[in-house]
Write a structure and sequence with these properties.
Layout (H helix, E strand, L loop, with lengths): L6 H13 L2 E7 L10 H11 L3 E2 L2 E2 L2 E5 L5 H6 L10 E6 L2 E5 L5 H12 L2 E3 L3 H8 L10 H4 L17 E6 L7 H13 L6 E6 L2 H11 L11 E6 L2 E5 L8 H5 L1
Parallel strand pairs: 1-4, 7-9, 8-9
Antiparallel strand pairs: 1-5, 2-3, 5-6, 8-10, 10-11
Length: about 250
């Protein structure tokens, strides 16, 4: 996005931002050797996931070189002055989210997956049991992670010892449409956190069975909907009908 100041190239950049609602972006500085250490990760992304399609379009891989400032960047990407390279991130939901973990490509791939899929759909008891099991890696069923010849694991040596898993139990999703939207935004905001993953269960029959089994440990007394937060082996719940519920604050 910074290879030229020519008017025609600037127009192509404008078209790029208008056309793509999601893309991977790398930020580096060609005048600083230590500010280009994420280039290999960016090339790995190009080789391994640029073929993956979202709504029929391949994932674009963009690069910004802060050593080549352009009027386009100054006008349309104002945050560039406050971010120091090297950085990798994604553009999603009209904003940029940056990766802040190890230079380990599978971990970055899972970050991209969380940005694309901020909430895990849990439809069975087996899904819920596996999701809440903090002793191993939860194998997600998204196209990005399962599209390769084999599932891309993070690797247990890269998984934080204390993990946070949350499940929004919505027995009647239509009743909590606004809350579910806020919950999704929280998932987008927390995509950079290796140790946090958000899930949702909308299966009314399953939720009824869980309430009968778990009772007040997972649900308020007079409701079949709740937000379960599990940190390591500790569990707590929040009433999703509360007007002051701010999900990213509670979860983080």
């Amino acid at each position: 996005l910074t290879s030229s100041n020519y008017r025609g190239y600037q127009r192509s950049n404008f078209r790029f931002l208008r056309r793509h609602k999601f893309f991977i972006v790398g930020l580096s500085d060609s005048k600083c050797e230590h500010c280009c250490t994420t280039e290999n990760m960016l090339f790995n992304a190009k080789e391994k996931i640029s073929h993956f399609k979202i709504k029929g379009r391949k994932i674009p891989i963009a690069r910004i070189d802060v050593a080549k400032p352009t009027k386009f960047l100054e006008k349309h990407i104002s945050w560039i002055k406050s971010i120091s390279p090297p950085k990798l991130g994604v553009f999603v939901g009209g904003r940029y989210t940056f990766y802040n973990s190890w230079a380990h490509f599978p971990l970055f791939l899972h970050f991209v997956n969380k940005a694309l899929n901020p909430i895990v759909e849990l439809n069975t008891q087996e899904d819920i049991d596996a999701f809440l099991n903090s002793t191993g890696e939860y194998m997600e069923k998204t196209k990005l992670l399962t599209g390769a010849e084999e599932y891309t694991t993070i690797g247990n040596h890269m998984i934080p010892p204390i993990q946070t898993r949350t499940i929004f139990f919505a027995a009647d999703p239509s009743e909590f449409s606004d809350e579910l939207k806020e919950y999704k935004i929280a998932g987008e905001d927390l995509a950079y956190r290796d140790n946090i993953r958000l899930g949702v269960c909308k299966q009314k029959k399953l939720i009824s069975q869980l309430k009968a089994k778990k009772g007040a440990k997972w649900f308020p007394k007079y409701s079949s909907s709740s937000l379960l937060i599990k940190r390591g082996e500790e569990e707590e719940i929040f009433d999703v009908s509360s007007e002051d519920t701010v999900y990213s604050k509670y979860i983080a």
